[in-house]
Specification:
Structural class: mainly alpha
Mean pLDDT: 88
Shape: rod-shaped
Oligomer: single chain
Number of strands: 0
Low-confidence stretches: none
Helix content: over 70%
Order of helices and strands: H
Radius of gyration: 14 Å
Number of helices: 1
Length: 33
């Protein structure tokens, strides 16, 4: 059960990192445009 919890939190962190990266890319593109 503990392993499942750590796996879920890792998934949440990965999703957050991806969202931050996408937001950064969008901002960079809008600045360059």
């Amino acid at each position: 059960m503990g392993h499942r919890d750590s796996q879920a939190s890792f998934y949440q962190i990965s999703k957050s990192v991806i969202n931050i990266h996408q937001a950064f890319e969008i901002r960079k593109n809008s600045i360059a445009a």
